[in-house]
């Protein structure tokens, strides 16, 4: 599922390859992906314009358009990617990485397409059809972007009163935008903080370590192509061991999400243990 790093690679692709190209036609016929717009509405609003800037906050991405046109919001959903084709037919993509076992892409998985006057195109490729395209998307409900939040802002957002689990707080997009499930596990593991630790029990040094882990996990995931490249991600399975200390990895549910942590370095405080899920033997 795309998190901030995957969306950032998609945004950079648009910024590098798709700006200032005249839009000659728009395929907005997928009424589910383009809801609440009716077919032809996006086409009428965008044809003749150009994308002039690609922006992102958290997992939300949008493009500004020329001649004071509307913003074009593109959400990658659970597995979407942006595919940009150059005038001479070169294809580049950004967003969810391709898996080795993936089926060959089908044309109908292009859910929304801008055709440029130069012969190239920009498409939202989304097999699962959970992405979304809309004009002037609202981003006011999102907190500051995780890649831009300052240390002081981060401490204020994370060290709050109340007994929310720190992982749930990291996932709360209205506080900090862009951290998804895998990135949260990676950050907590790097910082050696229990995912179930209560926000009101965090010390300043915990928040500082979490902030540094956020920065380094984002930098590394953007450079390496996605959150699946994180140091602890490959150990998130039954029988997995901590890549740092070798202790057994534990699994449970925190903030409603499947969570893995090191049984030694991220042991929860007394009474704060997450619900542990037992696996059946195969
Ligand atoms: Zn460990």
Task: Characterise this structure.
- The chain is α+β, with helices and mostly antiparallel strands and 282 residues long.
- The chain has 6 helices and 12 strands.
- The chain has helices at residues 4-17, 41-46, 151-158, 166-171, 181-191, 204-224; strands at residues 23-27, 51-57, 60-65, 72-75, 81-85, 91-95, 110-116, 121-125, 132-135, 249-254, 257-262, 275-276.
- A 5-stranded antiparallel sheet has the order 1-7-8-5-6. It has a 4-stranded antiparallel sheet with strand order 2-3-4-9, covered by helices on one side. Strands 11-10-12 form a 3-stranded antiparallel sheet.
- Strand 5 (81-85) and strand 6 form a beta hairpin.
- Helix 3 (151-158) crosses helix 6 (204-224).
- The model has no long low-confidence stretch (mean pLDDT 92).
- The structure holds zinc ion.
């Amino acid at each position: 599922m795309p998190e901030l790093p995957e969306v950032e690679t998609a945004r950079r692709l648009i910024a590098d390859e798709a700006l200032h190209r005249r839009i000659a036609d728009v395929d907005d016929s997928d009424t589910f992906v383009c809801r609440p717009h009716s077919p032809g509405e996006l086409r009428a609003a965008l044809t003749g314009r150009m994308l002039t800037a690609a922006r992102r906050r958290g997992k939300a991405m949008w493009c500004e358009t020329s001649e004071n046109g509307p913003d074009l919001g593109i959400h990658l959903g659970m597995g979407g990617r942006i595919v940009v084709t150059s005038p001479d037919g070169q294809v580049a993509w950004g967003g969810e990485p391709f898996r080795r076992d993936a089926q060959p892409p089908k044309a109908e998985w292009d859910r929304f397409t801008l055709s440029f006057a130069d012969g190239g195109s920009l498409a939202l490729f989304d097999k699962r059809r959970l992405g979304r395209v809309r004009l002037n998307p609202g981003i006011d409900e999102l907190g500051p972007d995780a890649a831009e939040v300052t240390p002081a802002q981060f401490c204020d957002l994370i060290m709050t009163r109340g007994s929310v689990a720190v992982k749930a707080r990291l996932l709360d997009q209205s506080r900090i935008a862009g951290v998804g499930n895998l990135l949260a596990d990676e950050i907590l593991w790097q910082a050696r903080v229990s995912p179930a630790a209560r926000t009101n029990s965090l010390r300043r040094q915990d928040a500082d370590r979490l902030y540094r882990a956020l920065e380094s996990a984002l930098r590394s995931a953007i450079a390496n192509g996605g959150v699946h490249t994180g140091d602890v991600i490959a150990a998130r399975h039954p029988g997995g061991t901590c890549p740092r200390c070798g202790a057994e990895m534990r699994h449970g549910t925190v903030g409603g999400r499947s969570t893995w942590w090191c049984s030694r370095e991220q042991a929860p405080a007394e009474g704060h243990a997450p619900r542990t899920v037992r696996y059946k033997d195969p």
